[in-house]
Amino acid sequence: MNQGVLLLNQDYSPLSICSMEKAFILVLLNKAELMTEVEDGAIRTITTSYPMPAVIRLFRYIRLPYRGVVLTRQNIFKRDKFICQYCGSAKNLTLDHIIPRSKGGKSSWSNLVTACKQCNANKGNYTLEEAGLFLKEKPYKPSYLMFLRDHSGSVREEWAPFLKF
């Protein structure tokens, strides 16, 4: 029962991923409805068997402030799929400023990429052009929905209809 459950707001927009236990309690207390259940999954008590939720929707709308993806080291690694954006290595990863901070580069989604220590050392305090390096993918700021869909650990097929753009 350690699988995550996609939690939807009343308007069907994704809110978060919650534990199976929390989802079951929300449905049991009539605070949410079961949208999709896990195939061949059940939560059993002594006398009753309940379907195991995969997606639930709240009955009340929850107002949330703007939900953006926080700029953190781990989120940059997730966005870049834990590979160096210069050589494709997955070992000894660190962050690199495309435009070095000494040349006015900021710590932002569009200026930070995942790099292995070797490529980061080779690039040094140079720009991409000066170092003769090329990026595998252009850095971008992911949307909350994209980040939830692509980087939540394990995206289940039952969630697919609710995580579209």
Structure overview:
By secondary structure, this protein is of the alpha+beta class. It is 21% helix and 27% strand. It has five helices and six strands. The strands form two sheets. It has a four-stranded mixed beta sheet, with helices on one face. A two-stranded antiparallel ribbon has the order 5-6. Strand 1 and strand 2 (14-19) form a beta hairpin. The longest helix is centred in the N-terminal third of the chain and has 9 residues, at 20-28. The mean pLDDT is 87.
Number of separate domains: 2
Would you report the number of β strands?
6
Q: Return Rg in Å.
A: 21 Å
Major sheet:
4 strands, mixed
Give the overall average pLDDT. 87
Structural class by SSE content: alpha+beta
Helix content: 10-25%
Write the H/E string, N to C. EEHEEHEEHHH
How many H/I helices? 5
Note the beta-strand portion.
25-35%
Cα shape: elongated
Physical arrangement of strands within the biggest beta sheet: 2-1-4-3
Please give the alpha-carbon distance between the first and last residues.
29 Å
Poorly predicted runs: none
List the topology elements.
Elements: E1 4-8, E2 14-19, H1 20-28, E3 32-44, E4 49-58, H2 73-79, E5 93-97, E6 112-116, H3 117-123, H4 128-131, H5 144-151
Parallel strand pairs: 1-4
Antiparallel strand pairs: 1-2, 3-4, 5-6
List its traits.
alpha+beta; DNA Binding (I), subunit A; 21% helix
In short:
This protein has helices at about 20-30, 75-80, 115-125, 130, 145-150, and strands spanning about 5-10, 15-20, 30-45, 50-60, 95, 110-115. It has about 160 residues and is an alpha+beta fold.
